Amino acid sequence: MEHSTQTHAGSHGDHHHHHEELGFWKKYIFSTDHKIIGIQYGLTSLLFLLFGFFLMIVMRWQLAWPGQPIPVIGGVLEKLMGAPASGGVMSSDLYNMFGAMHGTIMVFLAIVPLAFAAFGNYVVPLQIGAPDMAFPRLNMASYWVFFLGGVVMFVSFFIPGGPAQAGWTSYSPLASIVPTDGQTYWLVGMVLLITSSLLGAVNFLATIIQLRAPGMTWMRLPFFVWAQFVTGFLLLLAFPPLEAAGLMQLMDKVAGTSFFLPTGLMVSGKPADIAGGGSPLLWQHLFWFLAHPEVYVLILPAMGIVAEVIANNIRKPIWGYKPLVYSALTIGFLSFIVWAHHMYLTGMGTAISTFFQTTTIIISIPSVIILTVFFISLWGGSIRFNTPMLFVLAFLVMFGIGGLTGLPLGFSYADLYLHDSYYVIAHFHYIVAPGTIFALFAGVYYWFPKMTGRMMSEFWGKIHFWTSLIFMNLIFQPMFAQGMAGMSRRMYDGAVNYSAATNPDSLGGLSDAMIYSNRTISIAAFCLMIAQIPFIINLFYSIKGGKKAANDNPWDATTLEWQTPTPPGHGNFDVVPTVYRGPYEYSVPGHARDFTPQNMPDAIATKKA
Amino acid sequence: MDIPYTTHPREDTGLYNAKVGIWLFLASEVMLFGALFSAYILLRVGAAPGTWPMHLLNVPLGTINTLVLIISSVTVVMAWASLKMNRFDRFKIYQTVTVLCALIFLVIKSFEYYDKFTHYQVTLADGTVLDGHVVTKDTNSITLHHVKEIKPQSATNTVAAPVAAGAAATAEQGGHAADGHADDHSHGERKIMFSELAKHESGRLKMSNFGPWHNTYMAIYFTLTGLHALHVIGGALVIAYLLGPGTKMWFSDPERFTNRIEVSGLFWHFVDLVWIFLFPVLYLL
Amino acid sequence: MADHSAHSPAAAASAHKAGAHGHGHGHHDVAKEVRKYLLVFGALIIGTILTVAVSYIELHPHWKNIAIGLVIALVKGGLVAAFFMHLIDEKKLVYGVLGATVFFFVGLMYITLWSMEPGSFIRLKQPAAAERTATQK
């Protein structure tokens, strides 16, 4: 026994040695180190975030100036995409493609990987005092499967006929009867992305369950870890039904089956050449069974980041840690039984609508508790207004707006009117864009010193914050009005055809003010794009040129990730940390400093300097 | 750097990492197959009465495959028990049987698939349905053997119709048409000219083999069993690896190796478990 | 091979585990388990034969066949899960994970079906079905 253990340790040591010598490829590309994988996820998803943003910018041009050639890039688009962009003008097909891919890319390739995989990978093992993830090679595999999925999605832009164009929800039969191959690529890409998410979720959950450092009990976990834990469960149990649905739609597309295609389906006035007998509603059920929990996959990690940044910058404990944890668990549980509130208009019946309306309204309770906990925590704190904190404070308000405007959509009667209007767009973008993305920016500014040992510029950070905040609101606030005026979300001409000017004899046409808001929104969107330039430069410049962090713990934080060397080496901790206290012990009376790290024994904490 | 609890269980959970991992993974697998099962129920419940086919598949072959998977499940658990009892020799025998069982299963399954792809149903212009296995097929005719002939419902089914309105079971009985009112020309071959055939509204001939496109039953059959077969292949590859190059860990870290066998076994039992439901649902009921 | 395994460290390791944590399987425990496995094997074979046999007896209404088939499958699946996968004696954590999964699985199936057929879970009364086809035509 002794002997074999020694040989094992010996061979492992050799391996370790090799690992460091193997250089660039093993260290930065095919790495099994959770920190490198986290950064890989981060960079990839930031690129996709930019790409998804670019698609939207082009669409905004079309909405504001319908039919006008797109300036600057119109010619390039025509070269790349061919007929759909002929003359540099965005055709309705191209608009559909960009719309579908904007949603898909933003949700599945940008926000989720950034919030869950990138920050989760980098921060979770550090915060729980683990040397790495539970299954490092599986971790590498999930990144590369994700990458492959991204490649498939990206390549689909350049195939004949272009990418998927049936919306990010890919409702059948529409998605199945579009004659191009884009949808097939979309489905293959989705199956890869889902597989990657499943592997990632298994890894995260196993890591949090198994690798917590001695003394790190469940109620001592930083809230960020709790948020990732609940998110992991959502991905684990909600994604497989979409994978099944994706496989079935793929069969519909390539094997000629009729899972989602009903009997008697007519395509362009002719009977479709199918066996029939399928159910379009089944796709919607399976899709939303994932896609509603997915909303919480987008928002929970953001709330986790918010908790970390708030606690650190108010210099006092979070008020109500336990309600926070229980609310997150309740949200996770309830998010599985609210999905059909996306389907009030499918005619599935009043009884079931009432059921989903009830659960939908109930789920707003834990969300409000979480927000309330954060707001009350601010009370009486001595707040440091640095860049991460500014983004987090804005998150609280923006997420509040997004959440409250969701209530009318949760009631089936109000939803009859607002469904599929710009109101819905404004609602969920307030949750995700100035909500989640602001929290993610906060996370980038907050953890950057741990990843690189340098600070990002506070000045440019604040410029980035204020401009982003202003333009985000200028973009999404008018959309509430447009939606309530009745503007449908999928009009590729900016709803000019439904304006009062075009239809002088009809009642209820959209007023000039609503049509002109398209231009102000688009101009704000272009400005928002320009506002991201300081961030991009700041991010890359600061890696080498930023101000050096004062020490390993420049924010004077309590959680374990700040108690490691900077950047942490392979294996993270020099000695396995022992945890003595909860995550947010700031300004504890009788302690020498205003923060007491989780791994600091009482004897040292109370010793006067 | 060593990751803790790869071999020994953690005190508070009582489990080692891989076991936590595999159970989480199996939980997601339950949801994956669960969604397909719910699609199955939905398609069946939603099918027009009398159109859901029954006893279309080869029950003896399905039964043999069920027994093959049950045997493999026993050998997997026996292989693990052998390691626990320190009988590496028996472990190797048991796992060899497991891999063989997986191969037998796949071979039988591919015969069944082949059978369905050569099984044709054509509808003549007068509404008569002919059902048989293809002998030859060219540009203007198809030759079938073991042909069953089903006359149009209106002509032969005058007795059954009122029953269908009253008795609860008859809706499902349409699938039994092959037993009920079909003329079996089992051994004869029959050449059918395409010009004799009826056409769909879309203009396509009413002629189709029993591939996934045939109807929703064949669609869910191929999807479920295909996905299951992929799981069999994946599980067999892992077990074969742990029987081949993977065994060297037994000599360096036997406990961890035993854990690996347990974890791969858990996956294999799950694959068996899925089949235990697939078999009655697709073949029998 | 037997020679080698006699010197193998596994015995020491598993004995150590059994002693230290109290949930390892000693030789005798495993031998007892093996007897159980063989019994379960027998039960699974019988269950398979039974389910095939019953399927050839056409009961009226047909849902009785479905019910019997599913009950036998549930028993067989239960045996595999309980004994081969050791769920009968597993840690609380695993039960927790599976409990959550079963809950959401049932929710997915039930609510989906409920929304497809307003007012009834599975349509068992055929007259209703006949009416429906009549209206479709």
Q: Can you tell me about this structure?
A:
The complex is a heterotrimer of chains A (609), B (285) and C (137). Chain A contains 19 helices and two strands. Chain A has helices spanning 2-21, 24-29, 34-64, 74-81, 92-127, 136-155, 174-177, 182-210, 223-254, 280-314, 321-334, 350-378, 387-410, 412-418, 422-452, 458-484, 512-531, 533-545, 602-605; strands spanning 266-267, 270-271. In chain A, strands 1-2 form a two-stranded antiparallel ribbon. In chain A, a hairpin with a 2-residue loop joins strand 1 (266-267) and strand 2. Chain A starts with a helix and ends with a helix. In chain B, 47% of the residues are buried. Helix content of chain B is 58%, strand content 13%. In chain B, helix 1 (17-46) packs parallel to helix 9. Chain B has helices spanning 17-46, 59-84, 88-117, 153-156, 160-166, 177-180, 216-243, 248-252, 254-284; strands at 119-123, 129-137, 141-150, 183-193, 207-209. A five-stranded antiparallel sheet of chain B has the order 4-3-2-1-5. Chain B has 285 residues and is an alpha+beta fold. Chain C has 137 residues and is mainly α. In chain C, helix 3 (27-55) packs antiparallel against helix 4. The interface between A and B is large, with 53 and 50 residues.
Secondary structure layout plus pairing:
The complex is a heterotrimer of chains A (609), B (285) and C (137).
Chain A: H1 2-21, H2 24-29, H3 34-64, H4 74-81, H5 92-127, H6 136-155, H7 174-177, H8 182-210, H9 223-254, E1 266-267, E2 270-271, H10 280-314, H11 321-334, H12 350-378, H13 387-410, H14 412-418, H15 422-452, H16 458-484, H17 512-531, H18 533-545, H19 602-605
Antiparallel strand pairs in A: 1-2
Chain B: H1 17-46, H2 59-84, H3 88-117, E1 119-123, E2 129-137, E3 141-150, H4 153-156, H5 160-166, H6 177-180, E4 183-193, E5 207-209, H7 216-243, H8 248-252, H9 254-284
Antiparallel strand pairs in B: 1-2, 1-5, 2-3, 3-4
Helix pairs in contact in B: 1-7, 1-9, 2-3, 2-9, 3-7, 7-9
Chain C: H1 2-7, H2 10-21, H3 27-55, H4 63-84, H5 92-116, H6 126-136
